[in-house]
Specification:
By secondary structure, the protein is an alpha+beta fold. It has helices at 125-128, 147-153, 176-187, 234-246, 255-262, 264-273, 290-296, 321-333, 391-404, 432-438, 442-453, 462-468; strands spanning 7-9, 12-17, 22-29, 36-39, 41-48, 51-58, 69-74, 77-82, 88-100, 103-112, 121-123, 132-134, 165-170, 191-196, 200-203, 210-213, 217-218, 224-227, 250-251, 281-283, 302-306, 315-318, 338-342, 350-357, 360-368, 383-386, 408-416, 419-426. The radius of gyration is 26 Å and the shape is globular.
Length: 469
Amino acid sequence: MEINSKKTIGRAEWCGLLDLGVPMIKARVDSGAKTSTIHAFNIQKFKRDGENWVSFELHPLQGRRYPTLRCERPIIDKRVVRSSSGDAESRYVIMTDLELGDQTWPIEVTLANRDSMGYRMLLGREAMMGKLLVDPSLSCTLGDHDIADLESFYRISRPVTAGLRIALLASNEELYSNQRLLEAARERGHDAMFVNISQCYMKLDADEPEAHYRGGKSLNAVDAVITRIRPSMTYYGTALARQFESMGVYTTNGSAAISQSRDKLFSLQLMLKSGINIPTTGFANSPMDTKDLIEMVGGAPLIVKLLEGTQGKGVVLAETQKAAESVINAFKALRANLLVQKFIKEARGRDLRCFVIDGKVVASIERRAAAGEFRANIHQGGTAHIVKITAEERRLAVKAAKVLGLQVAGVDIIRSGNGPLLLEVNSSPGLEGIETATGKDIAGMIIASIEKKLRWKPALTGAIAQEKK
């Protein structure tokens, strides 16, 4: 093909993926990337007529989580692709027709979660070879589209009846997890508001209990409260949760469940009473018992863990007897309550985070410690990877959440030579690591669980209503 017969495009262009039912998606044009990629999540392989197929969901519009399209295509390959950050990832490859301007041709596309990327699609050089020229100084040479155009393309219709009134009870509105929950609730047609724990106050009254927010705004009319209470606000946060419970408002995690999960010693005792295995653990109040406490858990190396620590903070590996005595006595001198636990060497700095919603593990990841660290912690430079857990690990996670009475929980498990052991249960688990690693809409699942508990169903019109029939 002659050069002058090739179409010139810019660094970003609007295109369609006909076989996927995507009429318009903005793609980043990248001649440095070999293969094209589409944003996909909830990716599931299945068999159809003896052939391998894949089902997945995608959000085609940048910065939005609606509409959500569900797609199914035959798998033509599975390849290891190295991202721009250098990470290697195994991806399914499918074939679809690309519509670009007045031209249409088949291209190969890999499936990957691009939620954190600027564009929901990347157009690689294999799809462009022999057909296109790229001028990076240009953009949208084939025409641009505004929000009104896109809503028309996707026939986006909103619920005609008001949704639930959902309050997110937390401390920092800017956190990824809180932003995602508010976003997911609003996308599903609900009236979602952020409520800062420290700016709430309440009226204790047997006949007319009330909860108010800054400026005197009444919270009595809310239908549900998502309780995400930081450790430093546990006392007042659980008091507020109890107030909403006394008002008959549904809370995702109740006050008693949160209180039990925050008391690490008590929660571990509850686990043992329920037949759940944990690493051998010791607890003492007096520094005079340090040596015997160390021997009680099998000696050094061992883990020293503050009862009030979160997200891996306040957790120390003591590799020798002398180091263990020094760390324990130093903490005791500060009047800090702590546990000592047997160090599980065979775990190799890895643990599992199982996300449980309403008695079901909806996602699980393996967290790997950063170089030089002993504990898997994505908050301190570790990494998270999707993992398939065993039936025994799944049962342990579900049971641990149930023992504490948590509807939403992050259950941390470590793999030992004697089977899975429970580390701890988090009543306000973060969403960023697990959503990024698995590509699953965990925030949407939490909102869906609230809808189910309150028996709420949307009344939809237009194209969305037709799709539901």
